[in-house]
Amino acid sequence: MSITVKFSVVTFIDRETTVSVLGSVPELGSWNQKNRIELTQSDSEFRLGPGLEPSFWSKDVEMSFNGKSELRFEYKFVSHKNGNFIWEGEGPCHNRKEVLTLNDKTASELLVNGVYILPVGIWIEKTGQVNEYEYTTRFMCHVERQQIMHYCKIFENIWLGSCPRLRSHIMDLKSQGITAVISLQTASDIQKHCSGIYRYNQNLPITLKKLYKEEGISYIWLPMEDLSTESRIENLPQGVYLLHGLLNNGHRVYVHCNGGVGRSTAIVCGFLMYVLHWSLAKVQYNICSKRPVAFIDGRALITAEKDFIQKFGQVKSRLTFIQE
C-alpha cells in the first residue's frame, strides 16, 4: 500500500536558493543529495523581499508501507544554491521523525483529500529550533524599518496581516474593500506601532476607533497579550465568534495584531477549525502557504475549542469558502 505525503517548510532564504527534502527511505533519496526531492515555492507575494520574510515550500511524495502496518522514517530539509548544500539543524539530533499509520485518530486528522499532510516545518537553525519570539522579531524588524502594512488574502472576505502604521494604510484597506477590522493589539501596542497615524496622540486607541468610523469601517478592538498561549486560549472563543458574526453579516474582514504572525493568525485559524471544522493539519497548511510568516499555536487552538463549543455551541457558517 502507498500513500501521498505532503512535506512543507517555511524558511528565510534569498531568491536564488531552492529547498529540497531528503530522508532515510528510498522515496526521500536515502540521504543522498543527488536524489533529493525538490520542493515547489508557493506564489505568496513578497512585500519585504526574499530573505527578509519567510517563503513557503512544499511537495507531495508517494510513499510505500511495503506491506507493513506503519511507515517509519526520518527526514530533513536542505537548501541549495550555486552547488552548495545547507542542511537544516546540526547533525542527526535534528532529524525530523515520523511514524505514519492509517489506523488511529491522528491519521484521520492528518489525512485531507487523500493526502497525508505532515505539520508545516519551520527551518531548524544550527543552534536549534527558533521560538515564536525569535521568529517574529526577525520578520518584524524589517516591517518596522520599512513602515509597511504586511498583509495577505486568506479568502475573499478574510484578510490577515500586520497593523496599520500610517493613515494611508487605512485608506489601503478601504481600497481593498475591507469593511470591518478586528484589532488584537493592546493599548501599548497601538501607541508604539500605530503612532504614525496620529503623531503625539496620547489616546490613540480611541482616536483609531473614530477614524475607522469616519471611513465607514467597523472596528472591533479585542486586546490580547502578545506571545502568550494562555492569552490566546482565553480570547480565542470570543475572537472567533466575532469574526464569524462579521462574516455572516456580509463584511470583508481584516484581522491584525502587531505583525500578523501570532494573535491574528490564531483567530483566523480558530474560525477555520471551530466554524468550518477543518483539521489542524489542513488549517496549518492552508494558512502558511498563503502567509508563510504565520505562527500556528496548535496548543492554544486545540485547548480553546472546548470553551468555544461550551459558550457558543456547534457553529456553522452559512457562507461558502473556496480554497484558491
Tell me what the structure shows.
By secondary structure, the protein is an alpha/beta fold. 33% of the residues lie in helices and 24% in strands. It folds into two domains: 2-130, Immunoglobulin-like (Sandwich), CATH 2.60.40; 149-312, Alpha-Beta Complex (Protein-Tyrosine Phosphatase, Chain A). The two termini are 30 Å apart.
CATH homologous superfamily annotation of the largest domain? Protein tyrosine phosphatase superfamily
How many domain units? 2
**CATH architecture classification name of the largest domain:** Alpha-Beta Complex
Order of helices and strands: EEEEEEEEHEEEHEEHEHHEHEHHH
Strand content: 15-25%
Total count of helical runs of at least 4 residues: 9
Domain CBM20: 1-125
GO molecular function, one term: protein tyrosine phosphatase activity
Domain Tyrosine-protein phosphatase: 150-314
Pfam families: CBM_20 (PF00686), DSPc (PF00782)
